[in-house]
Design brief:
The chain has two domains: 3-164, no CATH class; 175-290, no CATH class. The chain is built from 13 helices and nine strands. It has helices at 3-11, 25-38, 47-61, 71-76, 99-104, 113-121, 124-137, 140-150, 161-164, 175-182, 227-235, 257-260, 281-290; strands at residues 45-46, 84-85, 108-110, 194-196, 199-201, 203-207, 222-226, 238-240, 246-248. The chain has a three-stranded antiparallel β-sheet with strand order 1-3-2. A two-stranded antiparallel sheet has the order 4-5. Helix 1 packs parallel to helix 7. It is elongated. GO terms for molecular function: endonuclease activity. Keywords: Endonuclease, Hydrolase, Nuclease. It comes from Pontibacter mangrovi. Residues 5-153 form the ScoMcrA-like DNA sulfur-binding domain.
């Protein structure tokens, strides 16, 4: 299989979709396995080893849920031709199996040989696949955190992903400027607006509904946030209502939590210049359901 064909296979994995609901189970399992391969482990990985790691990844980088199911992608990824089980006769990959079943039967999984062979021959391909998975499923603010969590180092060599695969949906290059202008070039939460001479520093345009989930590059789907509040917003530490009220997660704690988040809870953030630029309720509802973690403080 050629590198472009393999990248295309990863790019076109079948993820569960329902009205914008996020399902990062397969992408996170792929990234976790790529980390193992980069460290030299191309053999079967026991489910008992994958389960706690993947569950933590789903908690940290997936939508907030009452329960998390690392068992689902462990069998379902085989339907994409990208996963091999050590006991295939025990598993019908069209059905669901509990974690208890997978543990009791000592199931293990890995990428099949048509995947691992080119990865062994060209470690650069690991980086290309990882970048494709990250770009399709997570905002830029979370990429390094996810890489650190799965133990992947993408700084080894320059990437070839852009020339090997079809491009991801393009972003509007004017989105950042239109959002910063709408919020008068300051963070909507804390008012941060520092310049070095004429250069605006660490002020970013945040999508409310992520670009990866089909969120459009328009004013009603954006907020001007400093780099810190952008990261906190994308991690689900706080959300914003359509009336521009900031709601902070009840799971936020630690040094700095009071200054950066808790003192803003329930208060209005800075409004944009025009009422027409207020967040669209469809996008704020998506952020609450798919990004925000925990419950509301107020």
């Amino acid at each position: 299989m050629t590198h472009p064909d393999l990248l295309s296979q990863f790019q076109n994995i079948n993820t569960w979709k329902s009205k914008g609901t996020r399902a990062p189970h397969k992408p996170l399992l792929i990234l976790l396995t790529l980390g193992e391969i980069q460290r030299g482990n191309t053999g079967f990985i026991p489910y008992t080893s994958i389960e706690p790691k993947l569950k933590d990844l789903l908690i940290d980088f997936g939508p907030y849920r009452k329960s998390y199911y690392p068992n689902f992608p462990f069998t379902k990824l085989a339907n994409d031709g990208l996963w091999q089980l050590n006991e295939p006769d025990l598993i019908n990959t069209k059905q669901d199996y509990t974690s208890k079943f997978l543990r009791e039967h000592q199931l293990a999984g890995k990428f099949p040989e048509h995947v691992t062979q080119p990865l062994r021959q060209d470690p650069e391909l690991i980086k290309s696949i990882a970048e494709v998975i990250l770009e399709q499923n997570f905002p830029d603010t979370l990429h390094q955190d996810i890489l650190d969590a799965v133990g992947l180092d993408l700084a080894l060599t320059p990437s070839t992903a852009n020339r090997l695969i079809k491009p991801i949906r393009k972003r509007d290059p004017l989105f950042r400027e239109s959002i910063l202008k709408a919020y008068e070039y300051q963070c909507a939460v804390c008012g941060f607006s520092v310049r070095l001479r004429h250069q605006l520093l660490a002020l970013e345009a945040a999508h409310i509904m992520w670009h990866q989930a089909g969120g459009p590059d328009v004013e009603v789907n954006g907020l001007a946030l400093c780099a810190t509040h952008h990261k906190l917003f994308d991690m689900g530490a706080f959300t914003v209502t359509e009336e521009l009220r900031m709601l902070v997660s009840n799971e936020v704690n630690g040094i700095g939590a009071q200054d950066w988040l808790i003192r803003h809870d329930g208060k209005s953030i800075k409004p944009p210049q025009k009422k027409a630029f207020y967040p669209n309720p469809e996008f704020t509802a998506w952020h609450v359901n798919e990004v925000f973690k925990g419950g509301f403080r107020s």
